[in-house]
Write a structure and sequence with these properties.
76% of the residues lie in helices and 0% in strands. It is mainly alpha-helical. The protein is globular, with a radius of gyration of 22 Å. The protein has helices at residues 7-38, 46-76, 84-108, 120-128, 131-162, 165-168, 171-174, 185-216, 224-246, 248-258, 266-281, 295-307, 310-324, 333-355, 358-364, 369-397, 404-429, 444-476. Helix 1 (7-38) runs antiparallel to helix 18 (444-476), helix 5 runs antiparallel to helix 8 (185-216) and helix 11 runs antiparallel to helix 13. It binds protoporphyrin IX containing FE (HEM) and copper (II) ion. Residues 236, 283, 285-286 line the site of copper (II) ion.
Length: 479
């Protein structure tokens, strides 16, 4: 059953991981620069701050998506024969998208944040010219098209192999009383991501095309409220989907290490089905401040935000504890990173649940509390899973072995990432607004603590990345 991965797909995994890790380091440096500026340790102009913030936001989402995709493809290949050219085309279109985005930001001053909320791009087009917003929007569109093609292909493959997406989500076991275990977790998770993220990317494509038309022909405009709905239906779900792709590594790697299969029992299948549905429903928590949105919609946003990730998180955390319990598992770089990552994910959900409460949201939203939450689940969850997968890949496909150096860099990463998110959450609880280039004197200390922690996180990530690149030499022999 082991690695039936096509040699070209294996090479492509390497392209994905190399791009992910290098981009990650650059984006982290941009994050540190923002904190150094907010902490008054360096001074950059507000124009530069917002360019950097835009690049960091979209770049990090891209990093998580590329890393997550490589995990999904690598493990899904164990169960279904996949055509590597599709995997490679997604990489190519992503790369083209990234290049256009970089040119838009640093060449043409696009700085409307990665959420490109309509009508901001049209307004800044009047200021800096249409090239920046158009390049940026086309960049994101091309990237989205790459994902859409990949998801359409995966959907077709899942339907062919399992007889339908309902079947690959285990409906036979949930609704028709079929006995035994459902499809492998990698298949269930991929189905969930295909359904939710295709929807998200289509919503994103509609609003991006609308925005592009509006920039070219200002007489044709969109309803800003509708545009905001579509934008967050895209942004929220796209970010969320990265973790549902990356978590496949937790299932596969922990079961490989413990030599116990991670089976899709009924609770597991119900959880994934529930999260599929909820993920699509809850983006309205980004609109809790918009009084024009009908109350029932906001209540759905609130109630299901509590429930959203919980089912999958609970079955995953519980499953991981059970599979590890008395298994005599050998803890090394991959198994420990993936185990820790799961708790980063759980920890990151707690501040989100607090913030999703409407009354709290009115105070906390748009404060640093929000970056505090998503940096926890992205940085210590998704990214840690991707780093864990990088080690696993080199160990499984090459000959890399854990050493004390790895223990050190992993500890460094988690310790100081806790410092970053701690400083964000603390700043948020003092009502420090997010997305402000310049901070009041009473907020500066938390920024400085964040910046110093950030420098150590960059260092840890550089160490891990260097290990990854040197470990790849061993993989070269087998590809
Ligand atoms: C060394 C690590 C990092 C540092 C120092 C850092 C720092 C920052 C800072 C200072 C901001 C702006 C906060 C504000 O609104 O005032 C920010 C925003 C953001 N970061 Fe990070 N970050 C790091 C890692 C990450 C990672 C790993 C991810 C995701 C994978 C990420 C995703 C984002 C996103 C999506 C935003 C929002 C941008 C926006 O508001 O438009 N960051 N980060
Ligand atoms: Cu959201």
């Amino acid at each position: 059953m082991e690695s039936s991965i096509h040699p070209l797909a294996k090479k492509t995994v390497i392209y994905y991981l190399m791009t992910t890790s290098i981009l990650l380091i650059f984006m982290m440096i941009l994050g540190v620069i923002m904190l150094l500026n907010q902490g008054e340790m360096i001074q950059i102009s507000p124009e530069w701050f917002y360019k950097i913030m835009t690049a960091h936001g979209i770049g990090m989402v891209g990093v998580a998506a590329l890393g997550g995709t490589s995990i999904m493809w690598y493990f899904l290949s164990k169960y279904i024969k996949l055509r590597p050219s599709i995997f490679l085309q997604n990489f190519t279109l992503s790369l083209i998208g990234i290049i256009l985005i970089v040119i838009a930001i640093f060449g043409f001053n696009f700085s409307d944040a990665w959420t490109f909320l309509y009508p901001l791009p049209a307004q800044s087009a009047q200021f800096y010219g249409v090239t920046g917003p158009l390049l940026f929007l086309f960049g994101v569109l091309i990237l989205g098209v790459g994902y859409l093609i990949m998801y359409a292909y995966l959907a077709a493959r899942l339907i062919k192999e399992y007889g339908g997406l309902g079947k690959s989500l285990g409906w036979d076991y949930i609704f028709r009383g079929k006995k035994g275990y459902g499809p492998p977790p990698a298949v269930v998770a991929t189905t969930m991501v295909v359904i939710t993220n295709s929807t998200a990317v289509i919503a994103g494509a509609i609003v991006i095309i609308g925005s592009i038309i509006n920039i070219l022909i200002p007489a044709i405009s969109m309803d800003p409220m509708l545009a905001k709905h579509l934008t967050y239906a895209f942004g929220h779900v796209f970010c969320n989907a990265t973790i549902y792709m990356a978590v496949i590594a937790v299932y596969e790697v922990l079961s490989h290490y413990t030599k116990r299969p991670w089976k899709s029992n009924k609770a597991f299948l119900i959880a994934w089905n529930a999260s599929t549905l909820f993920t699509l429903m809850i983006y309205t928590h980004h609109l809790l401040m918009d009084f024009a949105v009908p109350t029932w919609m906001l209540i759905i946003g609130q109630v299901f935000s509590y429930a959203n990730g919980l089912p999958v998180m609970v079955v995953t955390a519980y499953g991981a504890l059970m599979i590890v319990y008395r298994s005599g598992i050998k803890w090394d770089f991959a198994s420990s990173l993936l185990f820790l990552a799961m708790f980063g994910w759980v920890a990151g959900a707690i501040p989100a649940i607090i913030d999703a409460t409407i009354v709290v949201n009115h105070v906390m939203h748009n404060t640093k509390w929000v970056p505090g939450h998503f940096h926890t689940y992205m940085g210590m969850g998704v990214i840690a899973m991707i780093l864990g997968f990088m080690y696993y890949f080199n160990k499984k496909e090459g000959s890399m072995k854990h050493n004390h150096f790895d223990t050190f860099s992993i500890a460094l990463y988690f310790t100081f990432f806790t410092g970053i998110v701690g400083s964000f959450l603390y700043a948020g609880s003092m009502s420090t607004p997010r997305r402000w280039a310049v901070h009041m004197p009473e907020w500066v200390l938390s920024d400085q603590i964040g910046a110093i922690s950030g420098i150590f996180v960059v260092l840890a990530t550089v160490l891990i990345t260097v290990r990854f690149f040197t470990g790849l030499k061993g993989v070269g022999k087998t590809t």
